[in-house]
Amino acid sequence: MTISLSDQRVLNDGRNDRLFRRGVTVAGIFVLISLFLAAAMMFKGGWDAFNTFGFRFLITENWDPVQQQFGALVPIYGTLVTSFIALLIAVPISFGIALFLTELAPHWLRLPVSSAIELLAGIPSIIYGMWGLFVLVPYLGEYVFPWIDEHMGAWPLLGVMFQGPPLGVGMGTAGLVLAIMIIPFISSVMREVFLTVPTQLKESAYALGSTTTEVVWNIVVPYTRSATIGGIFLGLGRALGETMAVTFVLGNAHRLSFSLLEPGNSIAATIANEFSEADSPMYLSSLIALGFLLFVVTFIVLSIAKLMLRSLNKREGN
Amino acid sequence: MLNQMKTSISALALAACLTFSAQAAETTGAGASFVFPAMSKWSADYNKATKNKINYQSIGSGGGIAQIKAGTVDFGSSDQPLKPADLSASGLVQFPSVMGAVVPVVNIPGVKPGSLKFTGPILADIYLGKITRWNDPAIAAVNPGVVLPDLKITVVHRSDGSGTTFNFVNYLSKVSLDWREKVGEGTSVKWPTGIGSKGNEGVAATTKQIKGAIGYVELSYAITTKMNYAAVRNRAGNFIVPSKESIKAAAASADWANAKDFSLVITDAPGAQAYPISATNFIMMKKQPKKAGKNADVLKFFDWVYANGDQSAEALGYVALPADLVAQIKAYWAANLK
Asked: Following CA atoms B181, B183, B185, B189 in sequence, which dihedral angle do they give, to the nearest 10 degrees?
């Protein structure tokens, strides 16, 4: 039987298609495999610590390399608190930047400002850390922290968060530096998604007599909500794992304190600081266990985000 | 497991390096960052003098010990000496290479550089968080004539594990029972108070940024960063400013002859002029190296260092070993290494 030219083409196309499909499948599975292997390796490396300290590893604040007693509470707490402060500051500012760029800024200004944001995102994190230590810390310690201590430290309940010595370093400073670092990420995602809002929708709203504020709140924000939240969590993911900038301004002290003016520690900073000189197997294992916990914390935070999105969508009936 | 991974990665890296320089005799070492500036200078000078290459990687004392135990480098280096039992269990020998000092640095407005004095127990109480203000009577008692402000003391310590920390807390353990019981000694410890900074440069920078801060750094860092460092009272009762002479006095008064494998920390040395927080860097070698003849290359290098490295080391803020200690080291080589 002879094969005609068109049959040959169909055969070739089919083969190419299969090859392509296999290629991209491998690429997709690669993510899953590397994720699984990373988690498994860290769990295995941290097994000694988990096994020895058990659940106490999560809830004790003791971190004593001399007595070989380790607990992860302080780094976990510090990681969550600094990232939360960062979001608290970064989200409104990023939102403003993105809205300004897409809705209000004159056209000639849009390109320079959005390029500037992308450049900010490209600055190595150690530069932010050094800027934090050499510029921000003395300023905060001299002018801002004493004021916070004096005026906000006496608040009922919340006051404990704002009491402390005016060192300039601490969890508040770390949150502030993190906020500046993640603003470029969040605002550039927000800008991109705000641009996807169909012009017809906005113009219709304007035609019905809406003000810019109303268009933003009633058209742009609802239309882009899931992508916006996705962008926020991209920034949060970066804040949770940030190492160098945080270690410069966090104070790196293994003590639990509710005050934002007091030094604390984060998971990534602890690992970066102590890994090279971790000279006993239990010490090393505890640090790897911390790495695994960072993984778990990130996973939980991202899962919560997905759940939030789902319930939002359900309420809207999508 | 991870150590294995670390080791095999560095073995790969070393193998990659070695293939590029097959002809010249290349010796590899790894360990303490304390000695890195001196090592770099020595290996450059040594290369000029003999065409032999020394490749030293500054990976930290803990890493240096792990690597020499695994035999992936020709010599390891640590600021904390290994105990003789540990050495013989791993088939290692150990000897000092160079000395330095850990100095308390302060940032107190109005206090002139070099005018402040400490005793060991005062330093321990500050780092324990028991003395919290600069005008504390205990500090004032040893600093007559110095106007001390009513300012909170902010303690700064290393956040990373370090031989500098080891020598500092080893000294505090020797002079304060409270410190020994509550904190102890090691390359990293559970600090009762204060904030942590990474590296000598980090401690120096943080101390400079915070008014009322006290930190501890290597002497060479204190000198190059022009910090206000203090004198410390030694065991003989004299207040000693850290300097080349006072470190040498500490090295000379230490009892090296009776320390098996030179396993001796020279903090709190007995000499009248000895600076009490003097530090020694140690070199570790395998008795039976994987590559025969490598030990001869290492010894040749340190032989050259003891003979020619003094000036370059001292220019960098280190102190060379006293001559009789070098003689003891050479006798030790002859007895333990073929």
From this structure: 160
Beta bridge partners of B286: B92
Contacts of B146-150 with CB under 8 Å at 24 or more apart are B146/B111, B146/B115, B146/B116, B147/B110, B147/B111, B148/B108, B148/B111, B149/B108, B149/B109, B149/B110, B149/B212
B323 min Cα distance to partner chain A (Å):
32
- Spatial separation of the C-alpha atoms in residues B41 and B57, rounded to whole Å: 13
Amino acid occupying residue A202: K
> Quick one: average pLDDT of A245-267?
89
- Out of B160, B195, B211, whose CB is closest to A251? B195
Q: For residues A42 and A293, what is the distance between their CA atoms, to the nearest angstrom?
A: 9
Q: How far apart are CA B206 and CA B30, in angstroms?
A: 28
Q: What is the pTM of this model?
A: 0.82
Helical residues (DSSP H) of chain A, grouped into ranges: 5-53, 56-59, 73-99, 107-121, 125-131, 137-139, 145-151, 171-195, 199-207, 212-215, 221-223, 225-241, 244-249, 267-274, 281-316
How near does any CA of chain B get to the CA of A277, in Å? 5
The model's pLDDT over B297-306, given as tens digits with 9 standing for 90+, comes to 899 999 999 9
E strand or H helix at B216, and its extent? strand B213-218
> How far is the first Cα of chain A from the last one, in angstroms, to the nearest whole number?
55
pLDDT (tens digit per residue) in B6-45: 444 444 444 444 444 444 568 999 988 888 888 999 999 9
B206:A277 CB<8 A: no
- This model of the complex carries an ipTM of 0.79
Would an 8 Å CB–CB cutoff place B184 in contact with chain A?
Answer: yes
Mean pLDDT of A5-24: 87
